[in-house]
Amino acid sequence: MKILMAALPALFFLVSCGNQNNESAKTTSEQVVASQKGEVFNIDTTSTSISWKATHKGGLAPRWGKISVTTGSLSVDKDSLSGGDFTIDMNSVYVDPASVTEKDKKSTDLEGHLKSPDFFDAAKMPTAKFVITKAEAFKGEKSELLPDPNYLISGNLTLKDSTLNVTFPAKVVISQSGVSAKAKFIIDRTAWGINYKSEGSPENWVISKDVEIGLTLDAKKK
């Protein structure tokens, strides 16, 4: 038993850090926003979605769900993505009931907790925002989370009262009628000051610091 207890901190450390790989978005300080040159396409909020996935209990109980986008646009200049932004409704945080399998747990309880001051404090800060600062051709290593990316997107992501710049691969398709974009990457929530159950020694990291974000954006002509 003593050997098992001594090994637990190392086990929690390895599981909690399992997502620290090349799928993590590069995070820097807030950058200058790219001007939206060319034609502007409005994001269709009915076909646009943001998914999230995080782990609980040291990586042993994944939780996942979606968040709604309320407004946004993408711009195209000379057949290339030039800029864009979208606003996220933090009060729309949804936890998929299929991800909560414990008999004594409810997905709605987790939704309430995520909206509380422990996490996003949605009552005081009801929206999050992403604004593109740079869009360039993808030339890096292939992404395991997203097959065949063709863009490398950088943008200022505002969560709660903190704004940081994140860079991640994306698959963007541009046509005469609209723009679609998909991306999937990992962020460290503590970089934005969302520190609940993440401080102290690794065995106390009940909820992983890493969150997988999936973007499915659909923008159409005005």
From TrEMBL:
Q: What is this protein called?
A: Lipid/polyisoprenoid-binding YceI-like domain-containing protein
InterPro entries in UniProt? Lipid/polyisoprenoid-bd_YceI (IPR007372), TTHA0802/YceI-like_sf (IPR036761)
Please provide the record's keywords in A-Z order: Signal
Annotated Lipid/polyisoprenoid-binding YceI-like domain ranges read 40-220
User: Which Pfam families does the UniProt record give?
Assistant: YceI
- Source species: Pedobacter paludis
Q: Which domain of life is it from?
A: Bacteria
Q: Where is the signal peptide?
A: 1-21
> Is Signal there in the keyword field?
yes
PANTHER family annotated for this entry?
PROTEIN YCEI (PTHR34406:SF1)
Please list the coiled coil stretches. Answer: none
